[in-house]
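Consortium newsletter contribution from the modelling node. Members have asked for a concrete example of what our holo predictions look like. Here is one, prepared for the iron/sulfur cluster complex that several groups have been discussing at recent meetings.
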Amino acid sequence: MQSEKQKEQKEKLDELLRKADVRQYDCYQCGKCTGGCPMAHAMDLKPRGVMRCTQIGSLERIVKSNTIWLCTGCHTCVERCPHDVNIPNLIEEARYLAAEMGYVRRDSKILNEVFLANIRMFGRNHEMLLAGLYNMLSLKPLQDMPTVPHMLTHKLIGVLPHQTKNTAGINRMIARAEKFSSMRPAGK
Ligand code: SF4
Ligand code: SF4
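And here is the predicted structure:
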């Protein structure tokens, strides 16, 4: 017999799948999604594992994973999937659910805020500022320091920021996205 907690988890998982328009048993665990995912090496739950968790009812494993914050939404997994299982959709919905359940990692929040502040200011990301502020605020000031000389020498990052011509337009887009997001019902 299911406990109250298990019932609640099942309802949340069913709702998540419904919102993402994903049917868990469409996946037959072939692993082609994981094989093509550019972020799989860093994920603690691979894309195939995400689908396995939906099949065995392990919602917590999904919302507590770093996978949902590392997925870039590139859609490689969907393109490779023989059954068109839309894992990025599922992950996108899982992010909202994780936030609702209080599982957003502090580091992820900091990165999100610093990235958005950067975009608001310049209309595009200034990598050096992003890395510097993120490292300081997440209390890892020396993280990635050994790579800085190489990146500067090869012009992979620049010291000075570049401003887009229409920063005001980008800010209007962000404001519209935030308005849309605030109109989502809780958990959606
Ligand atoms: S590629 Fe599709 S069917 Fe294969 S494991 Fe991934 S989601 Fe499942
Ligand atoms: S959409 Fe996400 S899970 Fe799918 S291949 Fe891209 S990074 Fe991996």
